[in-house]
Amino acid sequence: MQSMSLVVIGSVAYDAIETPHGKCERTLGGSCTYIALSASYFTKTSIVAVVGDDFAAEDRALLASKSVDLDGLEHVPGKTFFWSGAYSADMNDRTTRCTDLNVFAEFNPKLPASYKKEPYLFLGNIQPDLQRGVQRQMNGVRFVGGDTMNYWISQAHDDLLNTIRGWDFLLINDSEARMLAGEYNLRKAADKILDLGPSTLVIKRGEYGAMLVRRDTLFMVPGYLLADVFDPTGAGDCFAGGFVGYLAERGFDLRNGSFDVRELHRAVIYGSVMGSFCCEQFGVERFRTLTREQIDERFGEFRRFTSF
Amino acid sequence: MQSMSLVVIGSVAYDAIETPHGKCERTLGGSCTYIALSASYFTKTSIVAVVGDDFAAEDRALLASKSVDLDGLEHVPGKTFFWSGAYSADMNDRTTRCTDLNVFAEFNPKLPASYKKEPYLFLGNIQPDLQRGVQRQMNGVRFVGGDTMNYWISQAHDDLLNTIRGWDFLLINDSEARMLAGEYNLRKAADKILDLGPSTLVIKRGEYGAMLVRRDTLFMVPGYLLADVFDPTGAGDCFAGGFVGYLAERGFDLRNGSFDVRELHRAVIYGSVMGSFCCEQFGVERFRTLTREQIDERFGEFRRFTSF
Description:
Chain A is an alpha/beta fold. The first copy, chain A, contains ten helices and 13 strands. The first copy, chain A, has one domain (6-306): UDP-N-acetylmuramoyl-L-alanine:D-glutamate ligase.
């Protein structure tokens, strides 16, 4: 199989983060940033996002150092999206202190011509109608899916349903899955969501791991047991990047009848691996030193601690 | 390997349970009951417990139908331990409405002579000094461990430490592990607990599964995804019964240098299987119809949904 390249849409932001381990006033963040950094270890990744004129050359350089294609990173006058949040002592709760959309408020993703024939598309958490608009700009996409959040599930419900109907996979967390399905039990919730369009549902469960549900398979993995969870910001997006990045690397083609469903299981493991690394340092810091060798080593660790 | 038989100490009780699925006013319960019913599918199991003169013949008959040895089930004047509790809508919280210790208040376990040479001992959650007293009555035990609870961790801390120092394994839930270690992070908490004596620590995480930690292995498994959690009462005890029962069946001998650590992993799976069945009906009801074949089939399901 030949590896395929990936287009990622989402936010590029600056974050102020406070955890029990310390705080930082301004660090590179945003869903698109984390997804792309994570996916870049597996496949050629191109991003579509918007930043203001305060976007630092060194942050652009970090993405460029991972060979992320930045042709679709639009620079406009104004300030970059800014988010500030604080974690509880046990890291299981997060309070948003402020969300300044800034230039992101007017974000209307336009794909560079060179992106339009890429086979893999990941639609990060933005308005469902914008996600749909991006998908329409693509020609011949082979594997498309994305993320959403509680806000769109409640405030743009029909729009969201129209959007995900055209997706191959949906990747959300457990509380979002329950909310979207209107069902607390996760097994039943998953079944209801599979009726909405995506043939593959991935549910992230934070420190408790993740699961993948399809009509033909169920896969579950516990979370990696980190001795120090330094900062969980971006872990879910890094999971997404590892999941879709690995499948793209493997040239996984869901629309080709002969695909191996076990590849989806392995993609969940790579997602878990990438999410776990993300938590080891503040913001995107871990990606400055992380190597593919370390990633594959942790994949092996997952195999050891789940084998019986 | 030859299978070994098991002695279980704990409570035999009557429970009143209310869940979102319904309620029952009086049903057989207690840690010893659940542990023994669960373990009885794997190995010869003998119990040590106390009941009052209200203990019903049909409840005795249920245990006897699983070939549980009842020589150590003491009948005394008075009422059997009674517990009443109610679950929250999502089943994740439980409120105790009443705990009437009754004859259990004066429980001082005495082992029948025929029990004293059994090789496997599981000490259910009772006062740590009583657990220690039982262990002292045994001769030549090969594998001993048990459970405890938050009450003993806070109210009988030194006593508990003296007790578990002599155990091969400790089987507790995640909040108890955090409390016992004085450490929120589970990986660090587990390391601290391994310094207290038991070479094997099993941490139950409710719907999120379980983990086993030793100096030479780490094993994690997600929880079984039930479409209907009818009543979680006793699930942790059934986990314990499956865990220790499977090891006893296999003749697993930790004190024999050549043991296979993978057997401990499989024991965690059998524990998870038994805990999942327990939740499918009220109280002990599921054990009236459950077969070993169904148990092994679900073990196979665990293998499928965790393989990659």
